[in-house]
Design brief:
about 240 residues; about 0% strand; elongated; about 75% helix; mainly alpha
Amino acid sequence: MRKPTSPFDVALWEEIQPFLHPPAGSKEEETLARAVFKNLSGEAFQDAALQRAELRSTGHYVVELFFARYEVEVSLDRMKMAALLIKQYPALPSWKEAGITKEKYFRYHLEYYINEVNIFKERVAKLLGYIKNSCTKVGWVEGASEMEDLRTIFKESLRALTGIRHDHVHVRRYKDMRIDQLEGLEIFGERIPELEPVADDVYRTLRKRYSSAMFKEVSRLEEELDRVLDRAKAVAFKPVEVEVK
């Protein structure tokens, strides 16, 4: 996770610190242990009454908020990873046997990236939704409404920022004539050796262009995320200050 520098992340770290080092044997320590275990293991609470109590506890809210924020950062890291790997092609002997061509390697990481953009969108929406639900639980209607509005605005801004590519990731493959050209050159290059250097030139151009564009897009997504979280900060930590009856 990036070093907490935005107002939201700084506030989140300040809120979670007491729960990272609670007094031994205290109720806070029990709350933290159960909340962390639930997140790391995927285990759901068996006792419904206990679950409701945990959802109403300050420690659980902050820990859940932290994990939701962390998942958003994981998506950003994975997009950066794809942007880096897409410009590399470690041609291993076993790859040729498996039919892993430059085009297939390139397209795999491009589609992984496109899919991760969509996951990023859903994780941010989930984070804002969690804040909204926390507001609802304490009866703060204005806060819940503000979070719902912000979630809608975020989704629209992301659509404008990233274009339509991620909308079609589950409908059709992303199309680029240069990628299709690379595929054709590699297919015929097996029989026409003169085409191999042409394929290498096309691949080199694609790697440079897409990797640079993907890194720039991630930077824009980080800026958009910071703007959204700045607006969410005033609401996000309000449920912590409200005593739930």
